[in-house]
Amino acid sequence: MHIQFNDEPLECTAGLTIAALLAQLEQGKTGAALAVNHTIVPREQWSDHLLREGDSILLFQAIAGG
């Protein structure tokens, strides 16, 4: 299956969850936030959220401020 990860094309196996993808890519950083197709996915849903063909995943460091 083909997806985009941080604006880079990536091929991965079908039926992969966000958590499994991040583990494969060694990207399990604390303080990170993630969006799939421009929608934030809460960390507690990463183990259940299945990725689909063509998904666009953006992983970024969450920064608080005012």
From TrEMBL:
InterPro entries: Thi_S, ThiS/MoaD-like. It comes from Cedecea davisae. The gene is thiS. This is Sulfur carrier protein ThiS.
